[in-house]
């Protein structure tokens, strides 16, 4: 699936990732018992059989649409029309993408503008766990975002298969 050359929407991402095999998409809301602070955020899980209890699933990607006061505010997501795509890429792909391993992120934290749109950067809170982020993916990052999402999905499949 090719995204257009302009801005990539949340719906574009949801459709792309949701079409990957075994993916469960959950957008947090009152209807699914999510905590109010997360309402509107979208979580992507690999659960091919649909039998993993919700409290045991870990997302491999998320779309966050607002700041979490006192915790995650570095991207200033409370600006109108701003969202952040977050992807669990793991150590190797993190280093390939950013040029240093996740464990070294503390030394590089100040080097990044976490509010910049259409740039791949370390997740402001979860970089040490191998997460990267993109605020409002667009022409400069659309292809890279698809590649990162596809590789994160493949990584989740491998993890799932090892656990079985």
Structure notes:
The chain is an alpha+beta fold and 164 residues long. It has a single domain (10-163), classed as Aspartate Aminotransferase, domain 1 (Alpha-Beta Complex). Helices cover 27% and strands 16% of the residues. The protein has 4 helices and 6 strands. The protein has helices spanning 10-18, 90-98, 105-108, 142-163; strands at residues 23-27, 42-46, 61-64, 84-88, 120-122, 131-135. Strands 1-2-3-4-6-5 form a 6-stranded antiparallel beta sheet. A hairpin with an 8-residue loop joins strand 5 (120-122) and strand 6. The longest helix is centred in the C-terminal third of the chain and has 22 residues, at 142-163. The radius of gyration is 15 Å and the shape is globular. The protein starts with 9 loop residues before the first helix and ends with a helix. The model has no long low-confidence stretch (mean pLDDT 94).
Please, how many domains?
A: 1
Which structural class fits the helix and strand makeup? Answer: alpha+beta
What series of H and E elements makes up the topology? HEEEEHHEEH
Radius of gyration: 15 Å
Spans of at least 5 consecutive residues with low confidence: none
Shape: globular
Number of helices: 4
> Biggest sheet, open or closed, and with what strands and sense?
6 strands, antiparallel
Widest sheet: strand ordering: 1-2-3-4-6-5
What is the CATH-assigned architecture?
A: Alpha-Beta Complex
Mean pLDDT: 94
Number of strands: 6
* Helix content bin: 25-40%
CATH topology: Aspartate Aminotransferase, domain 1
């Amino acid at each position: 699936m090719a995204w257009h050359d302009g801005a990539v929407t949340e719906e574009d991402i949801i459709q792309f990732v949701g079409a990957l095999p075994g993916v469960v998409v959950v957008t947090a809301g009152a209807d699914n018992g999510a905590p109010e602070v997360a309402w509107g955020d979208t979580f992507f899980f690999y659960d091919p059989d649909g039998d993993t209890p919700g409290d045991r699933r870990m997302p491999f990607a998320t779309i966050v649409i607002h700041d979490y006061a006192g915790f995650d505010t570095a991207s200033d997501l409370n600006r109108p029309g701003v969202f952040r795509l977050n992807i669990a890429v793991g150590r190797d792909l993190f280093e390939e993408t950013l040029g240093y391993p996740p464990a070294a992120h503390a030394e590089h934290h100040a080097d990044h503008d976490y509010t910049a749109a259409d740039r791949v950067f370390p997740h402001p809170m979860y970089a040490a766990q191998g997460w990267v982020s993109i605020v409002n993916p667009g022409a400069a990052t659309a292809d890279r975002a698809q590649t990162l999402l596809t590789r994160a999905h493949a990584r989740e499949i491998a993890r799932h298969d090892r656990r079985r």
